Amino acid sequence: VLFIALFYLTAQSAQRAGVAATSVASKMSLVLTVLFAVAFLGERPAPLGWAGIGLALVAVPVASFGRGAPGARGVWLLPAMLFLGNAAIDITINTVQRELLTQGTEALFPTLVFAVAGAIGIIALGARGEIRSLLQPKAIIGGLVLGSMNYASLYFLVSTLSRSGMASSSVFPLLNIGVILFSTALGILLFGDRPHRIQTAGIALAVIAMGLILAA
After folding, report:
1. Residue 31 · residue 51 · CB < 8 Å
2. What is the pLDDT of residues 52-66, one digit of tens each?
3. 163-196 pLDDT tens trace
4. What is the SS3 string spanning the chain?
5. Maximal C-alpha separation, the chain
6. Interatomic CA distance for residues 49 and 84, integer angstroms
7. Which tops the pLDDT comparison, 96 or 24?
8. pTM of the full structure
9. CA 79, CA 60: separation in Å to the nearest integer?
10. How many CB atoms lie under 10 A from the CB of residue 179?
11. Is the per-residue pLDDT at 69 higher than 70?
12. Percent of the chain scored above 90 by pLDDT?
């Protein structure tokens, strides 16, 4: 349910708060993931790691500043909800991988997650009378492409947490640095979503924060 809700929320946030702010809010959820790893999984970041976490807490609202039409409601709320929702997903994945999965069941976990998400999506479309939209060629092709990419990303995340030998407090920053840079560049090139100076500073702070956490 959370996966489907976040897909919808991401689309709404990208339209109203901007692609860059949406990306940063989603990926900087690693702050809560790192804090969870420290508090409940026994990981201990170095001082640089703590500095990165503190800087990240500043970067998210700064990067989200001023997006959307003047007076638009919920512009700040949407990135904040993404921040919390993505953290919940990352924490769940981290905990499941650590406590429940083995190398023999790593592929089963993403299969189960997306099977349940797909079933819920079909039920929701049926309830809205839109089930026929699934039979359209563009829906089939788009679903296969998007589904394959999401399955692969979840599978490789679980595998990295399991086999890399790195603490999760380092894995999540490493994975998210590239995603933030790529999605921000994509927003500029494809959608003309050019961040203003304050947002650019927030994005820069986010990258610095991730670098500090990774270097710790």
Report:
1. no
2. 888 887 887 777 665
3. 887 788 888 887 877 777 787 788 888 888 777 8
4. CHHHHHHHHHHHHHHHHCHHHHHHHHHCCHHHHHHHHHHHCCCCCCHHHHHHHHHHHHHHHHHCCCCCCCCCCCCCHHHHHHHHHHHHHHHHHHHHHHHCCCCCCCCHHHHHHHHHHHHHHHHHHHHCCCHHHHHCHHHHHHHHHHHHHHHHHHHHHHHHHHHCCCCHHHHHHHHHHHHHHHHHHHHHHHHCCCCCHHHHHHHHHHHHHHHHHHHC
5. 55
6. 20
7. 96
8. 0.75
9. 8
10. 13
11. no
12. 7
Q: Give the whole-angstrom CA distance, residue 198 versus residue 63.
A: 7
- Taking the CB of residue 105, how many other CB atoms lie within 10 A of it? 14
Report how far residue 23's alpha carbon sits from residue 2's, in angstroms, rounded to the nearest whole number: 17
**Distance separating alpha carbons of residues 68 and 89, to the nearest angstrom:** 26
144-176 b/e (C-beta count within 10 Å ≥ 16 → b): eeeeeebeeebeebbebbeeeeebbbbbbbbbb
Q: Which of 89, 30, 87 lies closest to 55 in space, CA to CA?
A: 30
pLDDT in the model for residue 172: 85
Show the tokens assigned to 95. Answer: 């905990």
The C-alpha atoms of residue 67 and residue 195 are separated, in whole angstroms, by 9
